[in-house]
Write a structure and sequence with these properties.
Elements: H1 18-30, H2 36-46, E1 52-56, E2 72-76, H3 83-93, E3 97-100, E4 114-120, H4 129-139, E5 140-151, H5 159-174, H6 184-189, E6 195-201, E7 212-218, H7 222-229
Parallel strand pairs: 1-2, 1-4, 2-3, 4-5
Antiparallel strand pairs: 5-7, 6-7
């Protein structure tokens, strides 16, 4: 049996073992059944995209049907077993896409090249939220927008938060790193976006993976960055 190679760095895409293959299959079967209310929010959010769009952690392509015609879509997905599902969905919809391996923390995408970066139900499982958000800012054009929808930690002191803490280890093991009790809004607020519109809402699609946040964050214009540096 070949020896398992250690990652070259902490942000290297994961290996292609049996679990990754199974998880890709599972996501392809379940991702479109997360909840109608979540789909409705994603549909409204992604309807605003145009130009070049980079989607982080595209999974098996659950969001693909929500993008307007004419969008230039680049999909970043670390699990290579997902790529065949992405291409299959692209063919089914008749929508050309580009699929690349990579992680949220390290994307093979030019600086200042995207009009939008999209991230839905991904920041719960990345290795570093801070590094992922820095990378989103790097990839966005000045004035470009980061669109997000994520499940987050329940309020401190609630019964749900206690259960999220108890289930954290097991959930991460079966959910490919998905973490129930991340205060993701704090990381987004601290990331350095010029404008931030964020909504906290509840959805009971998956009882433990709630509540949620959704919103838009804008990369500073060049003149704003220059002024801040003075």
């Amino acid at each position: 049996m070949p020896e398992k190679r250690a990652p070259a760095n902490e942000y290297e895409p994961p290996g292609e073992g049996l679990y990754k293959r199974f998880f890709a299959w599972l996501v392809s079967r379940l991702q479109e059944h997360y909840g109608d209310d979540i789909d409705d929010r994603k549909r409204r959010m992604l309807a605003a995209t145009q130009g070049r769009v980079v989607e982080i952690g595209a999974g098996a392509g659950a969001n693909m049907r929500f993008y307007p015609p004419g969008v230039e879509l680049l999909l970043i997905e670390p699990n290579r077993h997902m790529h065949s599902y992405l291409r299959r969905e692209s063919e089914r919809l008749g929508r050309p896409v580009e699929v690349r391996a990579g992680t949220a923390e390290r994307m093979d995408v030019d600086t200042d090249s995207a009009d939008f970066v999209v991230c839905t139900l991904v920041l719960c499982s990345v290795g570093s939220q801070e590094a992922s958000l820095r990378e989103a800012l790097r990839v966005l054009k000045p004035g470009g927008r980061f669109l997000f929808l994520e499940h987050v930690a329940a309020p401190d002191g609630t019964r749900l938060r206690r259960w999220q803490r108890r289930m954290r280890w097991l959930w991460r093991r079966i959910g490919d790193g998905c973490t129930l009790d991340r205060e993701t809004w704090v990381a987004i607020e601290a990331a350095g976006f010029a404008e931030l519109d964020i909504e906290h809402f509840d959805s009971r699609a998956i009882p433990l993976a709630r509540p949620h946040i959704a919103g838009t964050a804008t990369k500073p214009e060049v003149r704003e960055v220059a002024a801040a540096a003075c």
